[in-house]
């Protein structure tokens, strides 16, 4: 029996990279994409050598065509498509300009939609499609209106896609991480006390880890989740449960 295969967009760091490692440990052949030169270099150096690392910008449909073609050439087909690439721009609504708006939707929604469309011919019967959404799309984060909308657009497709692809026995689900300690927090430049305050506001009293999200991704990709489709799994340590 041939190894199962997975394509992960935004797979050179954070949740995507942890998911690539989790699936690889389970015997998958994995290809990951990214566009940041630094994280690409680290991924090529540190990931297992048989995980394929490809430079691709989610904004570019030509890049997406190239990734799908490489996936076809290397693997022949796909069992898992994890649409994880995404960016965040934390701005109040009055500070959002057109370029920022377009960038968020181009990466978070348009890029993931067309990757799915172009990769669909490769997905085998019984395959799994997964999206990364995030709590901001369903529970609100000040300054995150456009980012939340772009991710919410993805989430709104999940039930419809689950119905469309059910005849092919392809399942479609989403994961919505809460506060996960990845490099994105360093980009925001928050002081330690601000990070502590965020952690204190989570019922379980801490940030999540990329590895914890990856374990949920691996479960949803597996036969153990064969009867789960059209769902959004929240992984947030109880965030949003308090009034």
Automatic annotation (TrEMBL):
Gene3D superfamilies to which the protein is assigned, alphabetical? NAD(P)-binding Rossmann-like Domain
Which stretch is the leader sequence? none
In terms of CDD domains, this protein maps to:
SDR_c
InterPro entries, per this entry? NAD(P)-bd_dom_sf (IPR036291), SDR_fam (IPR002347)
Source superkingdom: Bacteria
One Pfam annotation reads: adh_short_C2
An example of a GO molecular function for this protein is: oxidoreductase activity
The UniProt keywords, alphabetically, are: Oxidoreductase
The family classification in the record reads: Belongs to the short-chain dehydrogenases/reductases (SDR) family.
Under which name does UniProt file this protein? SDR family oxidoreductase
């Amino acid at each position: 029996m041939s190894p199962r295969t997975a394509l992960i967009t935004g797979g050179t760091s954070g949740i995507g990279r942890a998911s690539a490692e989790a699936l690889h440990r389970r015997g998958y052949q994995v290809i990951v994409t990214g566009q940041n030169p630094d994280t690409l270099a680290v991924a090529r150096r540190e990931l297992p050598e048989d995980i394929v690392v490809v430079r691709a910008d989610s904004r570019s449909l030509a890049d997406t065509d190239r990734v799908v073609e490489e996936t076809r050439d290397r693997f022949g087909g796909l069992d898992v498509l994890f649409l994880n690439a995404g960016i965040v721009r934390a701005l109040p609504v009055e500070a959002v300009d057109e370029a920022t708006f377009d960038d968020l939707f181009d990466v978070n929604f348009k890029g993931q939609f067309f990757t799915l469309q172009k990769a669909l011919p490769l997905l085998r019967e019984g395959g799994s499609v997964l999206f990364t959404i995030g709590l901001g799309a369903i529970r609100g984060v000040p300054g995150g209106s456009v980012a939340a909308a772009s991710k919410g657009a993805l989430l709104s497709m999940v039930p419809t896609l689950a119905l469309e692809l059910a005849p092919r026995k392809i399942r479609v689900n989403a994961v919505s991480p809460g506060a996960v300690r990845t490099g994105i927090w360093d980009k925001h430049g928050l002081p330690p006390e601000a990070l502590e305050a965020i952690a204190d506001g989570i019922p379980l009293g801490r940030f999540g880890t990329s590895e914890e999200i990856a374990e949920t991704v691996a479960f949803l990709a597996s036969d153990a989740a064969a009867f789960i489709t059209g769902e959004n799994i929240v992984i947030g340590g109880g965030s949003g449960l308090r009034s």
